[in-house]
Amino acid sequence: MDLTTFAEGQGRSLCRAGAWAAVILLIYCLVTMVILVWLGGAPETARECFELIQTNALVAVLRLDVLTILVMPVFCLLYAGLYASLRRECGLLALASCACAVIGVTLILANASVTSLVYLSHQYAAATTDSRRALLLAAGEAVMSTDMWHGTAAKMGGFLLQLAGVLISVAMLRTAVFSKVIGYSGLVAHGLDLAHIVIGFFLAKVAVVAMAIAGPLYLFWFPLVARRLQKLGQSGT
User: With contact defined as beta carbons under 8 Å apart, do 93 and 174 qualify?
Assistant: First the structure.
């Protein structure tokens, strides 16, 4: 087998893997929406978080976005597949997108706080003095303020991950590999999510609206991407 044939085979494999990654991310979006509706978002205070963990640990870790931690690496696989599909027609932009995604995921995971909060909760439950409990609550508040949704590094990671989506959508629009519908829907979804992160520092309510609009668009974008990558993985064209 020559190098060209080998590279094409690897590219098809990455496309198929990227297709499965898109399916997993679609399921993750649906499950996350159900969790938000039925269980609620993350606890707002360390005391509430500790008490929830002691009362119902499963509900607690779900509300603390443990699924996000488990699914985040899948984004790397998705963008690897997208890079493989676009490397010939728009290689530089696709490579930049893939790099942004990998760095973004790394920064977000570095600020994951679920295990730390579970540990502090157990320490809080075992504490025998008010001063010890107060100290653990303060530690919990510190962890929550620097988690993957509030910390500076995590915010930057989210910015890079959404920037990766914008870049790959632009690459799609510059080629005939993906349809214009996929390119524009991705550009709008990731663009709104990117705007949500940027304007969230100044206009929190507007940022929430942007995120609320972007969320359902992923339910449209991920299956389209999955279907196209699967076809590219099968045909190699």
Answer: yes
